[in-house]
């Protein structure tokens, strides 16, 4: 599921910065959400049962995960009035727990899906990434995407580059062909929207050189970006 979304993002040609911001929101969030559902739901969540407070926080988080997975983002954030109090309250009531940290990520993604980008930035920035290869880099990329929506473009580029570096750092051969090219592509397009054409072109060229087994390079789609930027 996540790979299919990655390929969709990698193959999309965006000609204007406005198109980038509008079209990539669902794509990047889709990647992150899918990873969370698959990885967190089956692996990480189990690790949070390490004590009474953590146990209580994890139990509270579980109901929110259900609402999140069913795209009931307002209830996921603010509670359902029937015992579940929401991600926002979990982050404050159980501050310092792993579950509260994960609630920050869920809250940020929920706000992003509701187009409340300032709130998305707040909670995604509060999330502390770990050393995993997929969820944490994707979370940092989601923060970059949120920064783009509030027009903090330098921070957007910085976080997208950081996300790619994190993903590469955890890859066996130092190259994550699945998600890193997507993040670098987005960073380059933001640079283009800032008229930083030379910087964007260098990233496009680096993608072609480094991520040779990615769908973006294999399909020769990256050549369109290189050609377009070279002619500016």
UniProtKB/TrEMBL annotation:
User: What is the protein's name according to its record?
Assistant: Tetratricopeptide repeat protein
SUPFAM superfamilies given in the database record: TPR-like
Keyword annotations from UniProtKB, A to Z: Membrane, TPR repeat, Transmembrane, Transmembrane helix
Could you tell me which residues the TPR repeats occupy?
A: 137-170
Question: Has UniProt tagged this entry with the keyword Transcription?
Answer: no
> What organism does this protein naturally occur in?
Prevotella illustrans
Query: Where do transmembrane segments lie in this chain?
Result: 27-49
InterPro entries the record matches? TPR-like_helical_dom_sf, TPR_rpt
Q: Which residues form the signal peptide?
A: none
Coiled-coil stretches: none
Cited Pfam families: TPR_6
């Amino acid at each position: 599921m996540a790979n299919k979304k990655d390929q969709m993002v990698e193959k999309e040609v965006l000609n204007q910065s406005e198109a980038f911001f509008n079209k990539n929101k669902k794509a990047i969030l889709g990647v992150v959400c899918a990873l969370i559902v698959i990885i967190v739901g089956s692996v990480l969540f189990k690790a949070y049962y390490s004590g009474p407070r953590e146990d209580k926080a994890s139990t509270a988080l579980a109901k929110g995960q259900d609402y999140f997975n069913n795209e009931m983002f307002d209830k996921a954030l603010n509670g359902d009035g029937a015992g579940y109090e929401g991600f926002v309250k979990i982050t404050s009531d159980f501050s310092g727990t792993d579950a509260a940290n994960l609630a920050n990520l869920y809250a940020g993604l929920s706000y992003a899906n509701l187009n409340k980008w300032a709130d998305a930035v707040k909670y995604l920035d509060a999330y502390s990434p770990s050393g995993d290869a997929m969820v944490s880099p994707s979370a940092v990329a989601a923060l970059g995407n949120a920064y783009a929506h509030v027009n903090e473009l330098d921070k957007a580029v910085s976080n997208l580059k950081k996300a790619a570096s994190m993903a590469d750092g955890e890859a066996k051969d130092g190259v994550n062909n699945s998600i890193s090219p997507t993040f670098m592509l987005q960073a380059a397009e933001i640079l283009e929207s800032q008229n930083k054409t030379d910087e964007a072109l260098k990233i496009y060229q680096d993608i072609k050189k480094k991520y040779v087994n990615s769908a973006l390079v294999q399909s020769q789609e990256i050549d369109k970006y290189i050609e377009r930027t070279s002619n500016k």
